[in-house]
Amino acid sequence: MIGYLEGKLLKKEQDRILLLANQVGYEILLPAIVRESIDSKKTGEEVALYIYYHQTERQPKPTLIGFNLEVEREFFRYFISVEDIGPMKAVQALTAPVREIARAIESRDAPYLKRLKGIGNRTAQKILATLEGKMAKFALIRKVEEPTETAPSEDFVEQVQGVLIKQLGHKVKEARGLIAAALKRNSSITTAEELFEEVYRGEVS
């Protein structure tokens, strides 16, 4: 299964690109939020994408869907877990930044979700019912991502710090500050999930 591709941009179309990697041309579908980042790229420039690989018995031809960040792909997997939202519908629906969609879900903002392409009231309610309470991590993605390496750790505080820095684009000092503030507000936190939720609450309060 293909999870990541890096190569030269051969061709751009409205909703997809052709990427040359290891002398093979891969056709990759791009959600609107990803296409915006590719618009400035010229033919021959390097492009790197995390790939969601979709293939089923009913759709035996593999479909590759590209994302700038691994955490965007992770969000996509959550999104397609909602009833009536398959990969193709999800690609069309992602017309807003993941962090904004995640915040709308956490705040039960159905009118915002209905502004996404192809999402009506019934589907918006299914999204809320399925994903509410699971989106705090994705709501913390920075608008401008600056990937930074961080050492893995079994300690849940360091796990959260690692995700904030490596996956969500926060700087080390900023991530430490968010975590310190969250623990100060709630000293009874014992898991990474609880810490993500408290950090998110601090961001939106």
Written overview of the protein:
The chain is of the alpha+beta class and about 200 residues long. Helices cover about 40% and strands about 15% of the residues. The protein has three domains: about 5-65, OB fold (Dihydrolipoamide Acetyltransferase, E2P) (Beta Barrel), CATH 2.40.50; about 70-140, DNA polymerase, domain 1, CATH 1.10.150; about 145-205, no CATH class. It is built from nine helices and five strands, in the order E-E-E-H-E-E-H-H-H-H-H-H-H-H. It has a five-stranded mixed beta barrel with strand order 1-2-3-5-4. Helix 7 (about 155-165) crosses helix 8 (about 170-185), helix 7 crosses helix 9 and helix 8 packs across helix 9 (about 190-205). It is globular. The model is unreliable at about 145-155 (pLDDT under 50).
The shape is globular
Q: Major sheet: order of its strands?
A: 1-2-3-5-4
Q: What is the CATH third-level topology name of the largest domain?
A: DNA polymerase, domain 1
Q: Based on helices, strands and strand pairing, what is the structural class?
A: alpha+beta
According to CATH, the homologous superfamily of the largest domain is: 5' to 3' exonuclease, C-terminal subdomain
Helix content: 40-55%
Arithmetic mean pLDDT = 89
